[in-house]
Specification:
The complex is a heterotrimer of chains A (about 290), B (about 325) and C (about 240). By secondary structure, chain A is mostly helical. Chain A has one domain (about 5-280). Chain A has helices spanning about 5-35, 40-60, 65-90, 95-120, 145-165, 165-175, 180-185, 190-215, 220-235, 240-260, 265-280, and strands at about 135, 140. In chain A, helix 2 packs across helix 9 (about 220-235). Chain B has one domain (about 5-235). Chain B starts with a helix and ends with a helix. Chain B is built from 15 helices and 4 strands. Chain B has a two-stranded antiparallel sheet. Chain B has helices spanning about 5-25, 30-50, 60-75, 80-105, 110-130, 155-175, 180-190, 190-195, 200-220, 225, 230-235, 240-250, 255-275, 280-295, 300-314; strands spanning about 140, 145, 150, 230. Chain C has about 240 residues and is an alpha/beta fold. Chain C has one domain (about 5-240): 3-Layer(aba) Sandwich (Rossmann fold), CATH 3.40.50. Chain C has helices spanning about 45-50, 75-80, 95-110, 120-130, 145-160, 175-190, 205-210, 230-235, 235-240, and strands spanning about 5-15, 15-30, 30-35, 60-65, 65, 80-85, 165-170, 195-200, 215-220, 220-225. In chain C, the strands form 2 sheets. A 6-stranded mixed beta sheet of chain C has the order 6-7-8-3-9-10, sandwiched between helices. Chain C has a 4-stranded antiparallel beta sheet with strand order 2-1-4-5, with helices on one face. Chain C starts with a strand and ends with a helix. Chains in contact: A-B, B-C.
C-alpha cells in the first residue's frame, strides 16, 4: 500500500464527507430535532439534482447557482409537506406506522415521476471546473469534489450560527425538548416545527446540486443515500450539527478506503453495514447523547 | 370458525380458482394470476409484522430476493424440486429476519424501519458481487415445459403459489385469534404497557420478524422459474417493497382479510395498468394510492366498510 | 414479617440531571405504603426503576429475595410486581375486556403451575371488571371510556396480573370525592387479600387514610419514612411542601 494512494484516499474521503454532511444536515434537523422520520429526504435531493440538470442543460447555468435560486421553492415545498404531515398524523397522535408509510410513498412517487419524465439514463452537468483538479505534489484535489465540499461546510456553518444565535433557531432547538416552555414564551410550536422542516427540505436543493456535480445521477440513486444519511445521523448523535459533520467525514473516509482497496461496488454496503453495527452496539452514537 | 375448517374452505376456494382459470383457456391468466397470488403472500407476511405488531418493514424485497436467490443457488449447485426449495428459502429468510431483528428490535420502531431499508441494500450489494449466482449479469433458469400430473409448468407454479396463499392466510388468521395475536396487538398499541403486563415484547417481535421474513422468502423461491431470468435489480425491485406496504395499508391492517383485499384489488389493477399503459405508471398509481389512503382512510378499505356499518347501526 | 421489597442505594440520572439519589426503601409483606412528594421529585422515576421500565444506574432492587438487576419489565411483572401508569396507557385497539385478558394470558398463565382454561380466563376478566365497576363496558373500547373509567381500567389491568406487590401511580387524579373513597376501599380490600400496595398520590386524604407508613421523596432523595401522622408533622416535610 503506497503512501500516496493512502493519502489520496483519505483526502477523497474527507471531501466526500463534506458533501455527505450537506446531504445529512436536513435529516439532522427533521429526525434529530423534530423526530420525524422523513425517508423521502433523499428523494428530494435527487429532485434537486434533476432541477439543476435541466437548468444546466437548457440554460447553461451552474448547478450551485441553480440550487441557491430554487432554495425558496424547496422551502415552500417543505412547509406544505409539514402541514399535511402535521394535520394528518402528528395531531391525531401516535401510530408512527402511517407517518412512515406517508414518507415512503412520497419517496416512491418522486422516484417514479422522475423515471417517467427523465427515464433511467444517467444525467450529468457540464461546468468548467468539473474535470479539473488542483495538485500539490502527489496530492490530488478534484475540483468537482472540492467545491461542493467547501460550499457545504459554509452551509453547515451558517445553519449552526442560525440555530445557536437567532431566536427562531434557538426555538427550533428548544422545541425538541420542551414544547410547553416554548408555548409559554409565546412562540407557536407548530410554526417553529414547520420552519424547521421547511429548512431541512431547503437543504435538499443545495445537496442535490452538489450531488450532480460529484457524480452522474439517475432516479434510483436516492435510495443509496437513505442508509448513508441515517448512518451518519446515528454515528454523529442525533440533532447535533457538529456531530453530523464528524459522522459524515468518518463515513466518507471509510467508504473511500473501501472503494480504493476493495472496489467501488462494495461502497453502498459500507454505510448500511456501519449503520446496522452502530444501531446494534452503540445507538447513542459516537458523540452520544 | 375453527382454523382447520377455514383451511379446508380456503383449499376448496383455491381449487375452484385453479380449475376456473384453466377453463379460461388463455395461459396469460396463469401468469397474471401468479403475480396476484404472490402479492397475497407478501402482503399477508408484511402485515404480520407491520399491521399486527406495528413494526414497519421497508425491505420486503430483501427477503423476497433471498428466497429467489436461494433457488438460483441450488439450481446451479444441486437442483431440487420447488416445494423443497420453498422450505429451504423460508428457513434462510427466516434466519436472516431473526438476525436482523435481534440487532435492531431493541431500538425504537423508526430505527428498525430504517434498518430494513439498509438490509435490502446490503443484501443487494452482496448478491451483485457474488458471481456464482450470476452477480450483476443475472442468472438464467430454464423453465421446464411440463411436470407430471398437472401438465403445464406455469399452471404448476400457479398451483404452488395458490397453496402458499392458502397457508399464509390461514396462518395469519390463526395468529389473530391466538394468544400470540393478543401479544402482537398489545405491542402495537403500547409496547411499554405490554411489557408491564407481562408480555415478552422482544421475544414476540422476533417471532413476528422471523415468521414474516420466512413467508416472504417462501414467496420468492419459485420466482426464478416463473421469470426465467433473474438479476438483482428486478429481484430487489422497488415494486415489492411498495406493494408489500401498500396492499395491507389499503386493504386494512387489522385482519387477514385486509392484505387479501389489497392484493387482489391492487394486483389486478396493476396487471391491467402494465398491459394497457406502462409499468412505470402502474407503480406511480400504487404510490399515489398509498399516500392517499394513509392520509384519508388510514384503516383501509376494511376500516371504511366498518365505519359504514357502524354508522348504519346508529 | 418478611421484607418483600428491598431497595438500596438506588440512583438514576438523565444526562446531568439527578432524578434519584441513593434511595433506600424497605417494604414488608402485606404493608400499605404511601409515597408522596412534590412534582418532579422522582416518584415516577422510582416506579419505573422498580418495575424495570428504566434501568437504574446504581444500587439494587431486591424483590421477594431475588435481585432484580438486569431483569426486564415483563420478567418482574411475572415475578409478582405490577404497576399502573400515571397517564393511562390502554390497548386502544382491544376491547376493555381484552385489555384485561393480556396480563391474564401473559402473566398469570405464564407462571409455572397455572394454566387457566378459556372459560376461566373469561371468568377472571369479568371478575376484574366487576371489581372496578366496568363490567357493563366490557365489549367497548378504551376510546369510549371517560377519563375516570380509563384510570379504573388501568388499575384493573395491573390487578389482573395477580401481583404480590401493586404500585398504583397517581391513580386517583381528577376523581371525585366518592370515587377516591371507592378506590381506596378497593385497594384496602386487595391488601386484605394479601397484596402489598405502594400508593403514590397527591391527594393527602387518600394517602393518610390508606397508608400504614408514609415515605416522602423530594428532589430524588428520601427525606422521611415512618408513621403517617409523624411524617406529616416533620419539619423538613413541611418545608418541602409549604416552603420556608
Amino acid at each position: 500500500m503506497s503512501v500516496d494512494l493512502f493519502i489520496n484516499a483519505l483526502i477523497a474521503g474527507l471531501l466526500l464527507g463534506g458533501f455527505y454532511a450537506a446531504v445529512t444536515v436536513g435529516i439532522s434537523i427533521s429526525f434529530g430535532i423534530l423526530d420525524i422520520v422523513n425517508i423521502a429526504h433523499p428523494g428530494f435531493i435527487i429532485l434537486g439534482s434533476y432541477i439543476a440538470y435541466i437548468v444546466n442543460d437548457r440554460l447553461g447555468i451552474d448547478p450551485i447557482l441553480t440550487g441557491i435560486i430554487v432554495l425558496p421553492a424547496f422551502y415552500a415545498l417543505g412547509a406544505v409537506i409539514y402541514q399535511i404531515y402535521y394535520a394528518s398524523f402528528e395531531k391525531r397522535g401516535q401510530d408512527p406506522l402511517r407517518g412512515l408509510a406517508f414518507f415512503f410513498g412520497l419517496l416512491f412517487i418522486t422516484e417514479v415521476v422522475l423515471i417517467l419524465v427523465f427515464g433511467v439514463d444517467y444525467r450529468y452537468v457540464k461546468a468548467g471546473y468539473i474535470d479539473q483538479s488542483i495538485n500539490f505534489g502527489f496530492v490530488n484535489l478534484p475540483l468537482r469534489m472540492l467545491i461542493p465540499c467547501l460550499i457545504s461546510l459554509l452551509m453547515l456553518a451558517l445553519l449552526q450560527l442560525f440555530l445557536t444565535k437567532t431566536f427562531i433557531g434557538r426555538a427550533i432547538m428548544a422545541v425538541a425538548q420542551d414544547q410547553l416552555a416554548l408555548q409559554l414564551m409565546a412562540a407557536d410550536p407548530v410554526r417553529i416545527k414547520r420552519i424547521a422542516f421547511a429548512i431541512s427540505i431547503a437543504t435538499c436543493a443545495m445537496a442535490g446540486a452538489f450531488l450532480i456535480i460529484i457524480q452522474p445521477v439517475e432516479p434510483s440513486v436516492g435510495r443509496e443515500y437513505i442508509g448513508r444519511v441515517f448512518a451518519i445521523c446515528v454515528l454523529g448523535g442525533l440533532g447535533s450539527l457538529p456531530g453530523t459533520l464528524i459522522g459524515a467525514m468518518l463515513l466518507g473516509v471509510v467508504e473511500s478506503f473501501t472503494a480504493t482497496f476493495y472496489g467501488p461496488s462494495w461502497a453502498p454496503a459500507v454505510a448500511f453495514g456501519l449503520l446496522l453495527l452502530t444501531l446494534a452496539f452503540r445507538p447513542a452514537g459516537i458523540l452520544g447523547r | 370458525m375453527r382454523s382447520w375448517l377455514f383451511f379446508l374452505i380456503a383449499c376448496v376456494v383455491g381449487a375452484v380458482v385453479f380449475f376456473a382459470t384453466r377453463m379460461l383457456g388463455n395461459e396469460y391468466y396463469f401468469f397474471a394470476g401468479y403475480t396476484v397470488l404472490q402479492f397475497i403472500v407478501l402482503a399477508t407476511a408484511w402485515n404480520i409484522l407491520g399491521g399486527y405488531t406495528g413494526y414497519v418493514n421497508f425491505g420486503s424485497a430483501a427477503f423476497f430476493a433471498v428466497g429467489a436467490y436461494t433457488s438460483v443457488f441450488f439450481h446451479k449447485a444441486y437442483p431440487l424440486p420447488i416445494p423443497v426449495l420453498i422450505l429451504i428459502s423460508g428457513a434462510v429468510a427466516g434466519i436472516i429476519g431473526l438476525g436482523m431483528g435481534y440487532l435492531t428490535l431493541r431500538l425504537r420502531g423508526a430505527f428498525f424501519a430504517i434498518a430494513t431499508l439498509a438490509l435490502a441494500v446490503v443484501l443487494q450489494t452482496l448478491i451483485v458481487n457474488w458471481d456464482f449466482v450470476g452477480g450483476s449479469r443475472g442468472a438464467y433458469i430454464i423453465r421446464p415445459r411440463e411436470i407430471a400430473v398437472i401438465g403445464n409448468y406455469v399452471q404448476y407454479l400457479f398451483l404452488l403459489m395458490l397453496g402458499l396463499s392458502v397457508i399464509s392466510l390461514t396462518a395469519a388468521r390463526m395468529i389473530e385469534r391466538s394468544r400470540l395475536g393478543f401479544g402482537f396487538a398489545s405491542i402495537r398499541d403500547d409496547e411499554l404497557a405490554a411489557e408491564a403486563s407481562g408480555v415478552p415484547t422482544l421475544k414476540l417481535k422476533l417471532i413476528a420478524t422471523t415468521l414474516s421474513g420466512a413467508l416472504m422468502g417462501m414467496a420468492g423461491a419459485p420466482f426464478p422459474y416463473y421469470i426465467g431470468y433473474l438479476e438483482p435489480a428486478s429481484a430487489f425491485g422497488l415494486q415489492y417493497a411498495v406493494n408489500s406496504i401498500a396492499m395491507p395499508m389499503i386493504g386494512g391492517t387489522t385482519s387477514w382479510l385486509g392484505p387479501l383485499i389489497g392484493a387482489v384489488l391492487l394486483g389486478t389493477l396493476q396487471q391491467w395498468a402494465t398491459v394497457n399503459i406502462s409499468s412505470a405508471v402502474n407503480l406511480l398509481l400504487v404510490g399515489v394510492l398509498l399516500v392517499m389512503f394513509v392520509i384519508i382512510a388510514p384503516k383501509g378499505i376494511l376500516g371504511l366498510i366498518e365505519s359504514r356499518a357502524r354508522r348504519k347501526k346508529s | 414479617m418478611a421484607d418483600l421489597l428491598q431497595v438500596s442505594g438506588l440512583g438514576k440520572r438523565f444526562g446531568g440531571f439527578v432524578a434519584l439519589d441513593n434511595v433506600e426503601l424497605t417494604v414488608a409483606q402485606g404493608e400499605r405504603v404511601g409515597l408522596i412528594g412534590p412534582n418532579g421529585s422522582g416518584k415516577s422515576t422510582l416506579v419505573n426503576c422498580l418495575c424495570g421500565t428504566l434501568a437504574n444506574e446504581t444500587g439494587s432492587v431486591k424483590f421477594d429475595g431475588r435481585d432484580m438487576n438486569g431483569l426486564t419489565a415483563h420478567q418482574r411483572t411475572r415475578l409478582g410486581m405490577a404497576r399502573s401508569f400515571q397517564l393511562p396507557r390502554p390497548f386502544v385497539s382491544l376491547s376493555v375486556a381484552d385489555n384485561i385478558r393480556v396480563p391474564l394470558l401473559y402473566t398469570v398463565n405464564a407462571r409455572s403451575g397455572t394454566h387457566l382454561t378459556a372459560s376461566e380466563l373469561d371468568e377472571r376478566c369479568n371478575e376484574m371488571l366487576h371489581l372496578v365497576g366496568l363490567r357493563e363496558k366490557a365489549q367497548q373500547h378504551p376510546r369510549d371510556l371517560s377519563q375516570v373509567e380509563m384510570r379504573k381500567l388501568e388499575l384493573a389491568r395491573a390487578m389482573a396480573a395477580e401481583p404480590k406487590l401493586l404500585i398504583a401511580d397517581e391513580a386517583m387524579a381528577g376523581l371525585s370525592h366518592s370515587e377516591v373513597e371507592d378506590i381506596v376501599a378497593l385497594l384496602i380490600r386487595l391488601n386484605e387479600r394479601g397484596i402489598t400496595v405502594i400508593l403514590i398520590e397527591h391527594i393527602m386524604r387518600a394517602v393518610m387514610s390508606f397508608s400504614q407508613r408514609l415515605v416522602v421523596l423530594v428532589s430524588g432523595k428520601k427525606i422521611a419514612d415512618g408513621r403517617p401522622d409523624a411524617v406529616i408533622r416533620d419539619r423538613e416535610v413541611e418545608r418541602a411542601y409549604l416552603g420556608e
